[in-house]
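User: Let's play a game. I give you a shape written as tokens, and you guess the letters that built it. Ready? Here's round one.
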């Protein structure tokens, strides 16, 4: 028995060692050109309001430029992501086991990565911290970070996290095939992704120049426009379709920005790409309809729009009507609620100006007659967007939120002149949110985090510890979670009458998710 145990351990160690060696992402050949690296331009947010990074030349040169200039931000980001993992899985042994399993699962994935993107990631990896080599080597970590979008959406469909993005689009009256597009990118992986967002301007040695709104070290993109006026963004979605291997959606988006001169060319790139997960791509150029591309690992469905539309996080094509994952997103999450509210707003503003579009992106109601709900996930602006953009396809003007979230002003950029001069050209800015101050924003977000912790403590019967956190969370007293937690606290201390009053109050404040309403109704029936 002892021999069997030791033999099993030896086999496991041998297998893990092989995985660790073969799981390392293969490095490309190196060919950095120092003169090209020196051309990079960095303008910190203290100068303009949003960090600006201009990159030039071959992929490895661009990666090396980006890594060298943003090294401090890059290392801070990695540490914050590692801290999230430590909180999610406290045991380093279990973490290591997970990393080994993931490495084994994704053997061979390198064939789905364009060599030029690997080259750029390699350049960035030369400036990452050695502190996190226990996770993987620097290049493998850079590849892994590209999967945050994919993993995050898998967690959504596994009921582990909740998130979503919203896009509003309206044709410009009197202008054939011209659009005003507004989009919130909701992402909760640390304050740094909002505070230190980067407008990354890329002037590659091949293909078209493009801009993407992203963060330090990110080779892929989620929102961008190229020099020809082709706009692309991603809204997460979900379906039962599965693929073990594929290209991260963020890299597909960047490939389309770099190599498409029209919306139709971008669509062709998306169609021929193999994805891991299901996403909604939005594509439009200066003369095209707005295309909604619903793409899963097995299907690509293209829906052109010529009228105003809203895109949230569920699929609308008939081929996905009975898909169980899509049905879950429609019935259990906030996608349909945000869609309905967006339709109301677009009916009210059929030909919006950029300022009116920003007002819609900042909307904090679930319906016209509902109260303002700060931090409620069923609203278009739930205070979690790391960036918000507005794009005028005719004028090629692009507005980006300074932060935090959508609270501060949005800076306007003339894209045509910026690409021509290889330097950001500012136009007018749009004002700060009149409905919430920066101080109030941080108070609400802090209170909501405290309430989530308090609810976890109450599930363990730790009444006093939860009471202290709830008493510090009064900034969120118009949020249903505050009254849900108060009800659970009263229940914890034996006061069921007061508990039911709090739970009843919570039901009147538009719970974001159906699971919360079901939970509250169950409590009220005690």
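Assistant: Ready! My guess for every position:
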């Amino acid at each position: 028995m002892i021999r069997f145990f030791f033999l099993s351990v030896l086999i496991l160690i041998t297998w893990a060692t092989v995985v660790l060696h073969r799981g390392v992402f293969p490095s490309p050949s190196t060919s950095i050109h120092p003169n090209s690296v020196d051309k990079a331009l960095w303008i910190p947010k203290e100068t303009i309001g949003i960090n600006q990074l201009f990159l030039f030349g071959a992929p490895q040169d661009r990666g090396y430029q980006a890594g060298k200039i943003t090294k401090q931000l890059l290392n801070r980001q990695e540490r914050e992501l590692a801290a999230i993992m430590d909180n999610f899985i406290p045991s380093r042994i279990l973490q290591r086991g997970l990393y080994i399993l993931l490495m084994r699962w994704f053997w061979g994935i390198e064939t789905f990565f364009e060599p030029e993107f690997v080259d750029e990631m390699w350049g960035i990896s030369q400036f990452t911290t050695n502190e996190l080599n226990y996770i993987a080597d620097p290049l493998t970590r850079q590849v892994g970070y590209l999967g945050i979008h994919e993993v995050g959406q898998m967690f959504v469909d596994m009921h582990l996290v909740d998130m979503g993005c919203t896009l509003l689009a309206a044709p410009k009256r009197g202008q054939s095939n011209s659009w005003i597009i507004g989009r919130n990118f909701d992402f909760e992986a640390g304050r740094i992704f909002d505070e230190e967002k980067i407008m990354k301007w890329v002037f590659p040695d091949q293909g078209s120049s493009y801009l993407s709104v992203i963060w330090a070290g990110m080779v892929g993109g989620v929102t961008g426009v190229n020099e020809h006026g082709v706009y692309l963004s991603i809204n997460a979605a979900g379906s039962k379709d599965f693929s073990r291997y594929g290209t991260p959606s963020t890299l597909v988006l960047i490939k389309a920005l770099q190599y498409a001169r029209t919306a139709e060319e971008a669509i062709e790139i998306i169609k021929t790409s193999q994805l891991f997960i299901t996403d909604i791509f939005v594509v439009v150029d200066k003369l095209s309809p707005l295309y909604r591309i619903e793409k899963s690992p097995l299907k690509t469905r293209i829906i052109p729009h010529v009228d105003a539309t809203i895109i949230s996080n569920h699929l609308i094509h008939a081929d996905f009507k009975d898909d169980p994952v899509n049905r879950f997103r429609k019935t259990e999450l906030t996608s349909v609620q945000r869609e309905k509210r967006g339709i109301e707003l677009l009916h009210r503003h059929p030909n919006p100006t950029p300022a009116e579009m920003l007002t819609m992106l900042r909307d904090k109601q679930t319906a016209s007659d509902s109260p303002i709900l700060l931090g409620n996930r069923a609203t278009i602006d739930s205070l979690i967007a790391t960036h918000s953009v507005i794009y005028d396809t005719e004028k090629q003007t692009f507005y980006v939120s300074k932060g935090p979230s959508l609270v501060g002003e949005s800076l306007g950029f003339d894209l045509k002149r910026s690409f021509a001069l290889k330097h950001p050209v500012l136009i007018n800015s749009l004002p700060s949110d009149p409905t919430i101050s920066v101080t109030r924003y941080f108070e609400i977000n802090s209170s909501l985090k405290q309430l989530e912790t308090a609810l976890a403590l109450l599930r363990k019967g730790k009444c006093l510890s939860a009471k202290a956190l709830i008493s510090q969370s009064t900034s969120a007293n118009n949020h249903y979670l505050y009254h849900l937690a108060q009800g659970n606290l009263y229940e914890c201390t034996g006061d069921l009458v007061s508990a039911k009053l709090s739970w009843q109050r919570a039901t009147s404040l538009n719970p974001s998710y159906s699971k919360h309403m079901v939970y509250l109704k169950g409590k009220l029936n005690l």
